[in-house]
């Protein structure tokens, strides 16, 4: 099992099973952490963590406009060794059992080339667990 699953599991379990009336700030913190974990899991090709983060109903849109399912994400090849990706300007809004994260991510290839992407991720809490159900990304 990958390190990110080991680090993420206690966080997701602790906050994911909290009461629906819990403080939205706690949920916001969970969603922010999930976004960070998602980036690390993607960069390190941590399929166990990606599987845990994405709902089975997940649908996403890539910067090229291609649709992706959870299966597509899990079959994507790893990022090139030496690549880096960071979150910028992350905003999270929680409304009951739904949440939206909007922000930017900066990708830097090993050769120094950079790309910035705007994204929107939709989350839902099912059976006490937050999961990503939709995402959309576009190049800046």
TrEMBL record:
InterPro entries: DUF4440, NTF2-like_dom_sf. Residues 1-21 form the signal peptide. This is DUF4440 domain-containing protein. It holds the Pfam family DUF4440. Residues 63-84 are annotated as: Disordered. The keyword Secreted does not apply. Keywords: Signal. It comes from Paraburkholderia largidicola. Residues 31-132 form the DUF4440 domain.
